[in-house]
C-alpha cells in the first residue's frame, strides 16, 4: 500500500485531496496544526469510507515537519506522495503589513514546502519513484493587493515548485502544482472536489509541472 501525507489537511481542499487518494487505496496521513481540525477531518474521511490517521504539525516549524515525515516512514515504510497544502490568509494593505507578518506567511507558504520536499526527496531519488504536489494560487501571477503575504508566498512557492521539478525529474521523482486562480467554493468550478481531482490527475499523468484551475 502506498502512503500519502497531506500537510494542511483542513475541511476544504485538504479533506478532498485526502479522500481522493484514500479512495485509490493510499494510506492517508493527515497533518494539521490543531487536534480539533484533525479530529473533524478524520471523522469525515471515515464516514466517506477512507481510513486515515492524523498527526499534529505546525507547517511553520521545521521540527514538526521533520517529526511528521520520520513518524510516517517508521509506521508505513516510506512516503510515496507528499501533498503540501498549508497556507494562511491575512488581509492588510501592502503599505501597512508588518515584516513579521510577511515572514510568518513566507515560512508557511514557501519554506515549509521547501523543507518538506528536501526531507522526502532523498529516499524518493534512491527509489527513483515518488511525487511532491504543492497547492499554488493565482496570486502568484496576479497579486491580490489586500493579501500581500499570500501573493508573495504563492509567487515564491511557484518558483520553488518549478525548481524542484527541474531538479528531480531525471531521478524519477515528479513535482507539480495546482494553481488555484480564484476563491475555492463548493458548487463552483473551484469546488474542493475539483481541486482534489486536479491533484490526482497531476500525480497520475506526470506530464506537466502546473495545472491552473480558474473560476471561468
Automatic annotation (TrEMBL):
Gene3D superfamilies given in the database record: NAD(P)-binding Rossmann-like Domain (3.40.50.720)
Stated name of the protein: SDR family NAD(P)-dependent oxidoreductase
Pfam families tied to this protein: adh_short (PF00106)
Family, as annotated: Belongs to the short-chain dehydrogenases/reductases (SDR) family.
InterPro entries linked to this entry: DHB_DH (IPR003560), NAD(P)-bd_dom_sf (IPR036291), SDR_fam (IPR002347)
Residues in the signal sequence: none
UniProt keywords, alphabetically: Oxidoreductase
Lineage, uppermost ranks: Bacteria, Bacillati, Bacillota, Bacilli, Bacillales
